[in-house]
Amino acid sequence: MGSTTAGSIAVAAESTVATRMSAPPSFDVADFPVPHGREEEWRFTPLERLRGLHDGTAVATGSGVKVAIEAPEGVTVETVGRDDARLGRAGTPVDRVAAQAYSSFEQASVVTVPKETVLTEPVRIAVHGEGGTAFGHQLIELGAFAEAVVVIDHTGDAVLAANVDYVLGDGAKLTVVSVQDWNDKAVHVAQHNALVGRDASFKSVVVTFGGDLVRLHPRVSYAGTGGEAELFGLYFTDRGQHQEHRLLVDHNVPHCKSNAVYKGALQGDDAHAVWIGDVLIRVAAEGTDTYEMNRNLVLTDGARVDSVPNLEIETGEIAGAGHASATGRFDDEQLFYLMARGIPQAEARRLVVRGFFAELVQQIGLPDVEERLIAKIEAELEASV
């Protein structure tokens, strides 16, 4: 494990024990006390900026968000009510906001890819905020041996609390790209639940740029042996923004794998990024192979990072487990090397940051999305020059 601190502007911390929630998972919002900010799962979050999502004062408005789905032939897209039995199977809300979202949504979007169907084009889900408050639920389900790529694009302005479920049948392969490109005043809090079937493969790529406050909680559990999960994340935190990513991989069955890599860049006063990476290897999960890493690049003074990798192991019969966290400024040697070859300092900084994010952008595998994100990174860097 590696951990570095850049002066007073960045903080890294770690623990060998996975953080515990203040209340057990539940679909009932009444089972969760109103957070006061001293709980482990809320201690980094500025509650006053949640617009009432945490204490029950937020009320859905008609102008909340609009959801549009484009899907290739063979994919079933439905809008269902709260009583649909397929909802909630991938995971249970673990905090009050997720429970509030589950208790408050009226309709859910369900995308189903039939068994043995291999999509050659992605499913695209556009979630556009129209200035109001909304509670949402989405389910993406793949039948046995199906393969799909899903892009969920968040834009506009909204206060949104949501749950997103991914259910993978045996042998299925799913890649999900969730882009948070909100306007500056948006608030987005969501729990992502993935249930990975036997010998199935799940890849999540989370990209966070916009919003006043974004707090995402990706969670993975396994429904059978041989499952694999890859969790990748990229975030660029600007002045005054709070971006928080809290991961949990629950190795609850034997012989499964997981790998988590999140990278962030920060710039500007009061830019605050939080990364919590929890991996739990239960007694029954013999043969587990897992690793998690978080790296942060601080571009200016006044930014803060809280990076907390946690690893809890309840059995000694594992293939491997590890974690790492690092936070620091630009590598002066890299800048000197580029500038010594005639590259101006501003351009050298851009090249270093692009290289820092390159491996994660390449995980997306969709040229149009990759090009858009590279352009977004370039635009963010322009602001720091």
From TrEMBL:
Signal peptide range: none
Coiled coil regions in record: none
InterPro entries recorded: Fe-S_cluster_assembly_SufBD (IPR055346), SUF_FeS_clus_asmbl_SufBD_core (IPR000825), SUF_FeS_clus_asmbl_SufBD_sf (IPR037284), SUF_FeS_clus_asmbl_SufD (IPR011542)
GO biological process: iron-sulfur cluster assembly
Residue ranges of domain SUF system FeS cluster assembly SufBD core in the record: 129-356
Alphabetized PANTHER family for the sequence: PROTEIN ABCI7, CHLOROPLASTIC (PTHR43575)
Database matches in NCBIfam families: sufD
Entry's family note: Belongs to the iron-sulfur cluster assembly SufBD family.
Annotated protein name in UniProt: Fe-S cluster assembly protein SufD
Organism: Streptomyces genisteinicus
Source lineage: Bacteria, Bacillati, Actinomycetota, Actinomycetes, Kitasatosporales
